[in-house]
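Chapter review: from sequence to fold.
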Amino acid sequence: MRALIQRVLEASVSVDGNIVSSIGPGMLIFLGAMQDDSERIACDLAGRIQKFRIFEDDSGKMNLSIADVAGQALVVSQFTLCADLARGNRPSFGPAAEPEKAESLYRAFIAEMAGAGITVRSGIFGADMKVSLVNDGPVTFILEEPRKR
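The token string follows.
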């Protein structure tokens, strides 16, 4: 499972010109599920992200988690994170999980985040979404679970 995480001041997702979700300060998390991912992997990644210290403390050092700052999370499914780019000029999406499995893992990830007391909003799985954000920093990271593929 792969996650692209952006520390944001605000973010929103629109479908057909209508905002379906929005957050204030926190994390925008683009999430991609791979064929060999499991619910355990989704929950492990959510647990890792909950503890990920990317928010600044009073000294300006990245030392606080999303829970420490009472931040919100906006989770958006993005199968393109699973693309194989090793050959040619056209991405191969063979490594990505099938839609039904990917949606189940996406929902498990969201439930794990919410179960930890984090305010979580989400996009609409499989929809053509438009994402707006104000990146704070900018601060952007890519996490993968399991950590060694």
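Two observations follow directly from the output. The first helix runs from residue 39 to 51. The radius of gyration is 15 Å.
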